[in-house]
Amino acid sequence: MTSDGKVPNKILQLSFRSHHNAYKNGDGSGAEIHDFSSKPTGSWYKWCQILFGLVVIHYFLWFIPLCLIIYLPYWLGYPFISGMLIGWYTVTYFTKDEIRLGRQWELFRSNRLWKLLQHYIEIEIIREVSLDPTRKYFFAHHPHGILILTRIASYGGIFENLFPGVEVRGLAATPMFNLPGCREVCLWLGGVRADKFVGVNLLRTKNPNLSLYVFPGGSDEIFETEKESKETVIISRKGFIRLALEEGADIVPSFGFGEKDAYHKLTIPKFITNFCLKNFKMPIIIFWGKFLTLLPLQGERGISVVYGQPIRIEKPMAQPSDELVDEIYVKYYDEIRNLFEKYKTKYGYDESEKLIIKEARTKSKSAQNGSAQHVKEN
Q1: Tens digits of per-residue pLDDT, 257-313?
Q2: CB atoms inside a 10 Å sphere around CB 85
């Protein structure tokens, strides 16, 4: 904030690439540009990028080294140490941090090592407007993509540089917190479970700077991610808008470009994917990146994230009307469309590229679970 208490409105661009930049010095935009495209050119740096990328992208496999660490003392003849490790981990596993304040590990989330991956996928981030750190926000992002690679644009201290004083928790699917190893990574990076009562409790904590990062399209958008398509398809929902109105949190529209270039995908019959999503709450999808792993492909356009103008919610409302929810819903998706149209050619998309907004077919599980009996003050 400035000395007179106002938040300066100035476009901020952080870029880890030298091409497909939305703004350039001297273009008359007045944007504040931070160029991080310079990096070591040796092969050692490329292999460091690949190694780090393989480790963090395959976080769902972290249960393997976790099991090995527990088993090693037993194999060496010290079973009591293995027992102690099992006991310690069991206690941490059942702390229910994923439905409380999370367990963010700042040393991990803000580590400079994330720049290896940010350089690898050539990220650029745009913040159109500064935010008042004394208010609460819903950062609502489309599209989800296959692995939400745009999340990487928040790590390594980037989010803190974009929005000083704003602390955020990201809502993530429940299964992510069930698998050992994967659970810890999600918690360390600021993830919490995507249930309504979790979001409500977080927004009602005594921490005035705590906000939420949500992906309204959810896993449904995974199946709409098509590498060769000239259409970008997102799934619209109203649940997060109603919650923002109830809690008096401003909504910050955010859009990501280049996510669909990151992976090849095998087409699976719709009835199979729909059955698995409905009955197991998990998307079934076969995809691959570099070296037939989940390391993303390096697209020509890179990956870009744009944070648009916040939609102001003046005060909390106990029971917002359906008409008001619809009004804010239209404003939010109009802003999402505006971001897409404004930046698509800047980020290498054809002028003919279209944004398709589909309404969700069913009410999300988190909305169904959000009864008042789960809400509590912290």
Answers
A1: 999 999 999 888 878 877 877 777 666 888 999 999 999 999 889 999 999 999 999
A2: 17
Among 157, 152, 233, residue whose Cα is nearest residue 170: 152
**Which residues fall within 8 angstroms of residue 263, CB to CB, at 6 or more apart?**
146, 147, 225, 227, 287, 288, 289, 294, 296, 297
Using DSSP, state whether 137 is helix, strand or coil.
strand
CA angle 231, 233, 239 (to 5 degrees): 160
Residue whose token pair is 């950062």: 139
Tell me the pLDDT tens digit for each residue of 198-218: 999 999 987 888 999 999 998
Let me know how long the chain is. 378
| DSSP H or E run through 256 | strand 250-257
**Using an 8 Å Cβ cutoff, are 129 and 216 in contact?**
no
The helix/strand/coil state of 260 is: helix
Over residues 121-167, the pLDDT tens digits come to 999 999 999 999 999 999 999 999 999 999 999 999 999 999 999 99
Phi-psi region of 356 (alpha: psi -120 to 50; beta: other; left: phi over 0): beta
Give the CA diameter of the chain: 69
Residue 6 falls in which region: left (phi positive, over 0), alpha (psi -120 to 50) or beta: beta
> Sign (positive/negative) of CA torsion 105, 145, 40, 125?
negative
Half-sphere exposure of 41 (CA within 13 A, CB side): 1
